[in-house]
């Protein structure tokens, strides 16, 4: 069952071959057996899943009727703990559903639980979770990537056919790459941020993981679209991404940015990317080299802007209204400082301090304003590139999944891990990671980037590749 595509699963429900309840039980059983070795979930919602599944049948409306799904624990879920993997929200039960959760429920999906992640989505390895790290199903000694590591590992291990995620600087594409699944980060504004706990609001974007681009197309069609409750959500029709997949990339112009293939890209990973690019040529695409000269500014730009926004967004966690509150505060200042000191982990505290610093009087122009200017230059690189090419292809990471603990004490090397994913986030363009092979026994992802609102082009390019290759169907040993 868990090797079928989403289209096949939905068809099996529609034809009465299976029932939403049977599908739900199949995946709940896998979660029961396989979750202990992965730690991919923070919360299971088996009882609620049964109630929802029992209310669905082959007649149910909704494009995804009966499809089991997992939600990243950054999305508010009514009546269900929503922790953002932080001690700060360990006791928080959301009073409402995020728009993404609401839409996917309306489409007939059955939520099985909430996935583990880096605390407040800050991290690239999932080691910054209050609930402990997630393990990579391809090798349990390695990280799954982050911050949406639980969602990526769960889909890779067949704990659910699809999972939601968020990507602020790579948190969908990077774990998708490291776990060997397909992940798409839509254009900034394509998916509502309402009820998605804010990290860096000018960058945060919801998206999804599944095994294939075609599967992602089904899920994205159901979750995307204008939402009056998110002021940056864009009023623009959402195509039926799945229906639009032609699998044809003949004549498509694909640009390879020289800056993404420079020093730092490990040789075996590079060989995988080169082979994937050749596959596109064999499918009739035209491949050209391009320049994106401001790429090397992305890490420093992002690690000013994202912490700045985080320091402001996280000010709301004060120990007063909701979330963690310290015991027996002496006075108001003690209440704030101890609640925040106890509630936030080390990386979150580091980001808040960096953010407060770059926004402070005297440093604001030198850091924050400067970063806004370099962000514009990075966006212009994309604008210019897309005057000549239809798509950009690149690696997602410099190397496959690193070992747990390997970078945990070195924040800068962790930040540098994001070099290939940050530029698209800063520009707001959509991006995807597609499984493209293996290096050192671990998955390698191909990154595809498209112009603003061309998610359909991305998904189609991924689909074309996946019709010609079978990397996306591989399952890690022990998770068959
Ligand atoms: N790794 C990046 C960070 O730590 C991106 C995280 C994300 O996209 N949420 O901020």
UniProtKB/TrEMBL annotation:
Q: Which domain of life is it from?
A: Bacteria
Q: What gene does this protein come from? A: gatA
Q: Per the database record, which ranges form the Amidase domain?
A: 23-459
Major enzyme class: ligase
Catalysed transformations (reactions): L-glutamyl-tRNA(Gln) + L-glutamine + ATP + H2O = L-glutaminyl-tRNA(Gln) + L-glutamate + ADP + phosphate + H(+)
Q: What does this protein do?
A: Allows the formation of correctly charged Gln-tRNA(Gln) through the transamidation of misacylated Glu-tRNA(Gln) in organisms which lack glutaminyl-tRNA synthetase. The reaction takes place in the presence of glutamine and ATP through an activated gamma-phospho-Glu-tRNA(Gln).
The cross-references to InterPro entries, in alphabetical order and at most eight, read: Amidase, Amidase_CS, Amidase_dom, AS_sf, GatA
**Gene3D superfamilies with a match to the protein in the record:** Amidase signature (AS) domain
Q: Which UniProt keywords apply?
A: ATP-binding, Ligase, Nucleotide-binding, Protein biosynthesis, Transferase
Instruction: Family membership, please give it.
Output: Belongs to the amidase family. GatA subfamily.
The Gene Ontology CC terms held by the record are: glutamyl-tRNA(Gln) amidotransferase complex
The GO biological-process annotations, alphabetized, read as:
translation
Which species expresses this protein natively?
Salinisphaera japonica YTM-1
What EC designation does it have?
6.3.5.7
Residues at the catalytic site: 72, 147, 171
Listed GO MF terms:
ATP binding; glutaminyl-tRNA synthase (glutamine-hydrolyzing) activity; transferase activity
* Assembly mode: Heterotrimer of A, B and C subunits.
Q: What is this protein called?
A: Glutamyl-tRNA(Gln) amidotransferase subunit A
């Amino acid at each position: 069952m868990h090797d079928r595509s989403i289209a096949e699963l939905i068809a099996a429900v529609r034809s009465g071959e299976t029932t939403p309840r049977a599908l739900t039980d199949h995946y709940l059983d896998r979660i029961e057996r396989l979750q202990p070795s992965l730690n991919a979930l923070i919360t299971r919602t088996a009882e609620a899943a049964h109630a929802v599944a029992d209310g669905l049948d082959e007649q149910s409306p909704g494009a995804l009727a009966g499809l089991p799904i997992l939600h990243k624990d950054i999305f508010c879920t009514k009546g269900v703990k929503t922790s953002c993997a932080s001690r700060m929200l360990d006791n928080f039960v959301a009073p409402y559903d995020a728009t993404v959760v609401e839409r996917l429920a309306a489409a007939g999906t059955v939520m099985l639980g909430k996935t583990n992640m880096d605390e407040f989505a800050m991290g690239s390895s999932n080691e910054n979770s209050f609930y402990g790290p997630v393990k990579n199903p391809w090798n349990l000694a390695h990280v799954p990537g982050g911050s949406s590591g639980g969602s990526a590992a769960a889909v890779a291990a067949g704990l659910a056919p699809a999972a939601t995620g968020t990507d602020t600087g790579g948190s969908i594409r990077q774990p998708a790459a490291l776990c060997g699944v397909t992940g798409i980060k839509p254009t900034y504004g394509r998916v509502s941020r309402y009820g998605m706990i804010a990290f860096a609001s000018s960058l945060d974007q919801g998206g999804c993981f599944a095994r294939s681009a075609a599967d992602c197309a089904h899920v994205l069609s159901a979750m995307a679209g204008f939402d009056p409750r998110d002021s940056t959500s864009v009023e623009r029709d959402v195509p039926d991404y799945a229906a639009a997949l032609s699998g044809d990339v003949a004549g498509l112009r694909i640009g390879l940015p020289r800056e993404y293939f420079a020093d730092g890209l490990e040789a075996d990973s590079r060989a995988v990317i080169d082979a994937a690019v050749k596959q596109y040529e064999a499918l009739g695409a035209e491949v050209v080299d391009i320049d994106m000269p401001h790429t090397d500014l992305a890490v420093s730009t992002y690690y000013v802007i994202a912490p700045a926004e985080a320091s402001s967004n996280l000010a709301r966690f004060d120990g007063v209204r909701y979330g963690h509150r310290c015991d027996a505060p002496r006075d108001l200042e003690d209440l704030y400082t101890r609640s925040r000191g106890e509630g936030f982990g080390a990386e979150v505290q580091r980001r808040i301090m960096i953010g407060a610093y770059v926004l402070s009087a005297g440093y604001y122009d030198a850091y924050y304003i400067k970063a806004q200017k370099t962000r514009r230059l990075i966006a212009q690189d994309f604008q210019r590139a897309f005057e000549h090419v239809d798509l950009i292809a690149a690696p997602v990471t410099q190397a496959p999944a690193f070992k747990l603990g390997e970078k945990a004490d070195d924040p800068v090397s962790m930040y540098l891990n994001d070099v290939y994913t940050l530029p698209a986030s800063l520009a707001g363009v959509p991006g995807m990671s597609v499984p493209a092979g293996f290096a050192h026994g671990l998955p390698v992802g191909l990154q595809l980037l498209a112009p603003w609102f061309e998610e359909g082009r991305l998904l189609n390019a991924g689909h074309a590749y996946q019709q010609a290759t079978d990397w996306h169907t591989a399952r890690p040993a022990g998770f068959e």
